[in-house]
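Lab notes, practical 5.
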Amino acid sequence: MPATDDEIKEKYLERAIRELNRFNRELYECQRCPRGPLMPVIGSGHPLADIFLLKYAPRQAEIEEGVAFYGRAGAALLKSFRRLGIDPLAVYGTVVVKCPVPDTELSDRDCRARLIEEIAIVQPRMVVVMGELALRELNALELPLAEPLEPNFGEIQTLTPSCEALFVPDIDNSLDDERAKRSFWRAFRKLGEWWADFPPY
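Output from the prediction step:
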């Protein structure tokens, strides 16, 4: 008897969970970056999310918890998702520099390239790139079939044939300044328009 759509989705989800667990174990065991006794900062959210949030490096609250988008940035984004009508369960967030090193330039190039595998596991339909450093790193990765992204805030661009991208200001730098906050919101609300047009299947 052929598998139902729900059964197929369940199998894909189980596989993504297994692969993310393996991916995170490998991060914990990696010794390439001089992070000392601190643990890497891992991604958080749905393992097969439609929306993939990408920041360059973690802030202190994320380092302390070991989870990307923990703290002020995550709380601000949850509020934004509510305003835009986006289901937070359709979101996954991560950072390029996963190890809490004193200087992000000390992070190993191969470790930053692990992002390729993380994107491949989650298989998002949209990558929201936060800030110029994250954009530079994503373009440098040369994802399979990827188009280079332009630094145009609030513009939906094609990343790969199956995934689009939205470039927005760095969320962490937008939290304490009203002008920067407005710039972030102007760009980020484009995600709400994209989500509203997204087919519900």
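Observations recorded by the TA: The mean pLDDT is 94. The two ends are 23 Å apart (CA to CA).
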